[in-house]
Amino acid sequence: MADVHRLPxxxxxxxxxxxxxxxRGANSAVxxxxxxxxxSARLAREATAKRICNSCPVRxxxxxxxxxxxxxxxxxxxxxxxxxxxxxxxxxxxxxxHAS
Length: 100
Known about the structure:
It is a single chain. The chain has one domain (4-99). The protein is globular and about 45 Å long. The protein is 50% helix and 0% strand. The protein has helices at 12-15, 39-54, 59-69, 81-99. The chain is an all-alpha fold. This is Transcriptional regulator WhiB.
């Protein structure tokens, strides 16, 4: 589950970007894997989700949100779970090295 402390306040301007998402109305199963999904089935589903993201007018906002709140599951802004974890880890390392 995402850390809800990182979520923006419940003001509509903070969430309006979601109304414009290319994924709006799409089956959420395309963006979130079932527990037993592995291998080529998972890769194919993620590729489908990322194609939707590639055409999305709010892709950057979506990805920014997912990284900020550290969404642990699904495809957000064209990035999968492991891709986002890598970005978050790299950001932490960079911030840590600048603080030292």
